[in-house]
Design brief:
- The protein has about 350 residues and is mainly alpha-helical.
- The protein has 13 helices and five strands.
- The strands form two sheets. It has a three-stranded parallel sheet.
- Bound molecules: tryptophan.
């Protein structure tokens, strides 16, 4: 079993990032490395240049994301943690796979359609071939399982199509070059909403800092933000159905549930009939208890550039070694002479 997943580097990490991807990566690492599987987790910095970006911010965000991942529990001794830019095999394999991926397949990708919008002529070529790089990311390591959010399922299917066609066209049946990876969509892929508006996602770009819990927030700040979170005047219902049409209440109950490792129904069983005056302090304390140790590590580690660069250098070295045999097999299969 080999687990591979990537995340685009962003700065100002918040609760939504943690409960979205990071927590799931940590859980998979803890479960699967104990059973002898290898987990490779990387910062998709090469993907980040498919959209307009500020170079200094990309560099800073890459390091900040490493600090966040390690602080939240990714262990660079058990998992291979690296950034694409230090493993040139990703870009090399992408080019080789560009011969196999079809224009029609890429044209159907919803992320491409969404991000390019009406201005396809002005979109970068990288945005169009983004899914081919993503296919290279996982095929390079013979990934068997790829944890991703629902929105990335289509890209994973494309990776499977690319692998299948490449194997058909260029490999013998008994010796395929690539493994077909399976997506793993986390069961309760937590969608954390803004504390100020239960209908929009918690986001680092929301102008109001009160809308999100940052991974750097201290205990007082967390308590304050939870207490000031938007709610409605009704007490909490006894059943999930009672949360319908109450996006803010639904969000806070959802956050409590994932942080406590229980279901929203469990939360309502404990808090049915209670108002937010009682629920919010409980939620705040839970968040402080769970986030404080991570926040403390994060605040220290993000300032330690030498430590962060050392983690990435070590991860990159391990990743390059694992990538080489598959890349060589792909060159050979295509008839590319390199000796
Ligand atoms: N496209 C993914 C996202 O935006 C990030 C990503 C890049 C990825 N390469 C990957 C995820 C390979 C899983 C496997 O979330």
């Amino acid at each position: 079993m080999r687990i591979v997943s990537g995340i685009q580097p962003t700065g100002n990490l918040h609760l939504g990032n943690y409960l979205g991807a990071i927590r799931n990566w940590v859980a998979m690492q803890d479960e699967w490395t104990a059973k002898g599987a290898t987990c490779l987790y990387f910062l998709a910095d090469l993907h980040a240049i498919s959209m307009p970006h500020v170079p200094a911010e990309l560099a800073a965000n890459t390091r900040e994301m490493v600090a966040a991942l390690v602080s939240c529990g990714i262990d660079p001794d058990r998992s291979i943690l690296f950034n694409q830019a230090q493993v040139p095999q990703h870009a090399e394999l992408q080019w080789l796979l560009n011969g196999t991926a079809r224009m029609g397949w890429l044209n159907r990708m919803t992320q491409w359609k969404d991000k390019a919008g009406k201005n396809r002529e002005g979109a970068s070529v990288a945005l169009f071939t983004y899914p081919v790089l993503q296919a290279a990311d996982v095929l390079l390591y013979q990934a068997t399982h790829v944890p991703v959010g629902e929105d990335q399922k289509q890209h994973l299917e494309l990776a499977r199509d690319v692998a299948q066609k490449f194997n058909n066209d260029f490999a013998s049946e008994d010796k395929p070059v690539f493994t077909l990876p399976d997506p793993i969509i986390p069961p309760q892929a937590a969608r954390i909403m803004s504390l100020r508006d239960g209908n929009s996602k918690m986001s680092k770009s929301d102008p109001s800092d009160m809308s999100r819990i940052n991974l750097t927030d201290d205990a007082d700040t967390i308590m304050q933000k939870v207490k000031k979170a938007k709610t409605d005047p009704e007490p909490l219902p006894a059943e999930i159905e009672g949360l319908a049409g109450r996006p803010e209440a639904n969000n806070l109950v959802g956050i409590y549930a994932v942080m406590a490792g229980v279901t929203p129904a469990d939360v309502l069983r404990d808090f049915a009939g209670k108002g937010f005056g009682a629920f919010k302090p409980a939620l705040g304390e839970l968040l402080v208890e769970k986030l404080s140790p991570m926040a403390a590590r994060y605040r220290t580690l993000r300032e330690d550039r030498a430590a962060l660069d050392a983690i990435l250098a070590k991860g990159g070295e391990k990743a390059r070694a694992l990538a080489l045999p598959t890349l060589n097999a792909a060159y050979d299969a295509l008839g590319l002479v390199r000796s």
